[in-house]
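Onboarding guide, step 5: your first structure request.
Type a short instruction followed by the sequence, for example:

Predict the 3D structure of this protein.
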Amino acid sequence: MESTHDPRDRLVREKYFTLRPKPLERWLWQQHLPPAAERVFWLHWEEGMRNRSWCSEIPIRRVARECCIDASTVTRAYQWLKARGLVRREDPGRDPANPFQQATALTEVRIPRELLVELSRHPSRRQRTAAVAGDASPMPPARALGPDTGAQESLHGNAAPAVPEVTARRFSRAEIQGIMARLSNAERARFFTASRGQSGTMAFDEASRLSPDERAFVLGQLTSASARISGPGSVNSVHRSKAPTTSVRLSVLELARARRTIGAHSATAQQAAETLRQVVWAVEEGALRSFGTLKGLNVALKKIREGAWTRPHRMPPNWQRDHAALETCVAA
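The system replies with C-alpha cells like these:
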C-alpha cells in the first residue's frame, strides 16, 4: 500500500504480453471456438510468429502444460482446428534417435478462406513516418508512462524533448491534376528531365505557384519513380544481371514429410539421415532444383520408394544445409 507505482502500470511496462490480430480474434469468437482449442491455437500462433515461419514443433505434454488442460483435450482441440482449416499438422513418423517413440509433429497455423475474403473490410493501423525530412534517423520508440510519470520527469529535469510526428498529406486525383497544371513551363521541363534521368530532385522557380506541401509531393513522385526504375526488381537491373539468383528452400513441413518417407524405407537411422541430406541437396542445389521444391521432392521420394535413388552427381562430400534442418525431433 505504501508503493507509489501502480501494479497495473508495472504489469504493462515490465511483463510479457501477447499480440493478437483483432480480425482473427473476432472471427474465432464468431465461430464459437472451444476455450481449449483457442488456447492451443494461440500458443502455436505465438510460437510460429516468433519463428517467422508460422510453424512450430511443440510436444503434446508441453502444450497441455502451457494451456493448463489435459493431453486428451489437446488431441480433441487439434481435431477441431484441423477440421476448420486453422492448423495443418505433419507427422514426421518415428524419432530416428529412438524408434520406439513418436517424433514431435510439426504444426502450421493458417488463416481460413472465409476470413481472407473479408480481411479488407477491417480497418488497418495508422502508419507513422519513421523519419523527418532531412533526417534519416528513426524516431525513438514510444514509452508506456503512467499518468504522473511525465510530470515527475519534468520536475526532476529529465523530460525528453517532444518529437513531432510527421504525417504526409494525401492528395486526391483532382488535386494532383491541379498541382501538375500549376507547374510553369520551366518547372515542367525540369520535371520531365528529372524523371527521364532517374533523378529524385529538381529545382523550382522562385515565384513558384506551388505550396511547400505540393513541392514535397512532386519531389516524392520523382523519388518513387527513380526507385522503381533503378530498384532490384526493375527492368534495367534485370538486364544488367545475367543470371538472377533465386533461393530454393524446402519448408519445414516438406522436410518433415521427406524425413518420414525416407525413414520408412531405410534400414538404419544413419542411412536415413544420409539419404535425407542427399535429397535436400538435389532439390535445393542439384538437378531437381529446376522442378521446384514440391515437384522435385516428389520425384526424389518416388525414386526412394522404388529403390532407384542414387547419390547425386557433383554433390560435395561434406555438404551441410544452413540452419541445420537434419536434426532429429524431440520426442513427444
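Each response can be followed by summary notes, for example: Strands lie at 55-56, 87-90, 94-95, 98-102, 106-109.
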